[in-house]
Amino acid sequence: MNDPVQIHASCAARGAQGIMLCGPSGSGKSDLLLRLIDAGYDLVADDRVCLRAGWASAPAALAGLLEVRGIGIIRMGYRARVRVAAVARLVSPPDYPPRLPPPPHRDKIAGQPVFFLDPAQPSAVARIGLVLDCIAGRRQLLDERQM
């Protein structure tokens, strides 16, 4: 049986799909997680994520806790675990990817597609929704050869 790996990230769930938000401290993980929750996603984990065989959960001590900068730590309802469907690497200019980035690669730890996202963009929540729709087959992500 695989031992869990704990990583510095946050995680939200939409239906059966989990989205892991990865980035350094102060990159906007918790703020983006708050906006996802406000848009109807479920809290899975904030600040630390336990991964085991593709499933994400919060460490027991942090389950149901969300840090909201400037307000404090809020206890709220949460999803105990979700299968990770994609990983969002949070970046900001000048590290933002090109307009048409190469096809997504797979995260070494989660094993799922990675995409890059500026969490400060007003469209960040909508972009995560599009990525999850593409993974679920509800939309199609084209590459340059298909245009």
CATH class: Alpha Beta
CATH topology value: Rossmann fold
How does the helix and strand content classify structurally?
A: alpha+beta
> DSSP strand (E) fraction?
25-35%
Helices and strands, in order, run as: EEHEEEEEEEH
**Global shape:** globular
Tell me what the CATH architecture is: 3-Layer(aba) Sandwich
Helices, by number, come to 2
Strand order across the largest sheet:
1-2-8-5-4
Q: How many angstroms does the end-to-end distance come to? A: 44 Å
Counted up, domains total 1
Low-confidence segments: none
CATH homologous superfamily assignment: P-loop containing nucleotide triphosphate hydrolases
Report the major sheet.
5 strands, mixed, barrel
Q: In total, how many beta strands?
A: 9
The percentage helix is 10-25%
What is the CA-based Rg, rounded?
15 Å
Q: Residue-averaged pLDDT, rounded?
A: 91
Kindly describe this structure.
With 147 residues, the chain is of the alpha+beta class. The chain has a single domain (5-146), classed as Rossmann fold. It has 2 helices and 9 strands; from the N terminus they run ββαβββββββα. It has helices at 29-38, 124-136; strands at 5-14, 17-22, 42-45, 48-52, 55-57, 65-68, 72-75, 82-90, 114-117. It has a 5-stranded mixed β-barrel. It has a two-stranded antiparallel ribbon with strand order 6-7. The chain is globular. The model has no long low-confidence stretch (mean pLDDT 91).
List keywords for this structure.
single chain; 147 residues; alpha+beta; Rossmann fold; 9 strands; 16% helix; globular
